Amino acid sequence: MTTWVPITRDDLETWMDGLPLDGKWRFQTGRAGVYLLPLSDKVAVKLSSTIGSSDDAMGRGEASMNLALVSIVTGQVLNKKAMGQSRFHRTTNWRRTWRDGFDRMADAYLKSQGFYDAIASIGDRDKWKRDTLADIEAVPNWQEKSVLHDFHRRVTEGGVLTILQQALLKKLLDDSRRSLNPPSPPGADAELPELLDRLRALWKKAKDSGDAWLMQFAANIGNIVKAGRPLSPRQKEIMEKNFARHRV
């Protein structure tokens, strides 16, 4: 015959004090008997107990505890199966059986720590997927880079990138942007207003002469300059020739 025992809040919190946590356990805001047991700054084990339930429920053995791996950032449940059973009752050996459940949760996290830490920060998976694929595809010739090709396949198939993989993607994306937009040489910023004025003057002369192609060219070059992107040698050549031709 199973023996049910009362567990006070002090009993439970003393037991939690002995767990290997990444910091101090804490209450989940607004939830009586629900605690967060942090495993990192992003992931915790959520312990939901029936501390405070009626004595009648405890006497029938219905008082229990269950666990789930959750995101501290978003509050989303990441894993609720790893505890190994649906709930833990208040039996005489509750300290050992409840610790076994916690250890299984912690082991599941440690075995896939990179995955859980990454997914814990994602609130909207669909938006994250769209944004991450767009970042990958923004790197020129990404298909030819094996690491980006692997990232793209993983995300397309519903996977997530670990924190380190996301940092690598950001570095590759930043590097590609710097290569497309090299720093301006000293004094270049001061020359931009003058260059834009000359392009506006060129556009006006093209309009006055009915040269639609030159109007479009001057407008396109102006947009490139305002965006801080470099001009190709051919674009510079055509621009200078038209400046000279129209004396602007």
How would you summarize what this structure contains?
By secondary structure, this protein is of the alpha+beta class. It contains 10 helices and 6 strands.
Helix-strand layout with pairing:
Layout: H1 9-17, E1 26-27, E2 34-38, E3 43-49, H2 55-59, E4 64-71, E5 77-79, E6 88-89, H3 94-111, H4 113-120, H5 125-137, H6 146-156, H7 163-180, H8 188-209, H9 212-226, H10 233-246
Antiparallel strand pairs: 1-2, 2-3, 3-4, 4-5, 4-6
Provide structural commentary.
- By secondary structure, this protein is an alpha+beta fold.
- The protein has 3 domains: 110 residues; 57 residues, no CATH class; 59 residues, no CATH class.
- Helix content is 54%, strand content 11%.
- The protein contains 10 helices and 6 strands.
- Strands 1, 2, 3, 4, 5 and 6 form a 6-stranded antiparallel sheet that branches.
- A hairpin with a 4-residue loop joins β2 and β3.
- α5 packs antiparallel against α6 and α8 runs antiparallel to α9.
- The longest helix has 22 residues.
- The chain is rod-shaped, with a radius of gyration of 31 Å.
- It starts with 8 loop residues before the first helix and ends with a helix.
Jot down its keywords.
248 residues, alpha+beta, 3 domains, six-stranded antiparallel sheet, 6 strands, 54% helix, 11% strand, rod-shaped
| Percentage of residues in DSSP E strands | 5-15%
Label the overall shape. Answer: rod-shaped
SSE order in H/E notation? HEEEHEEEHHHHHHHH
Mean pLDDT comes to 85
Helical content class: 40-55%
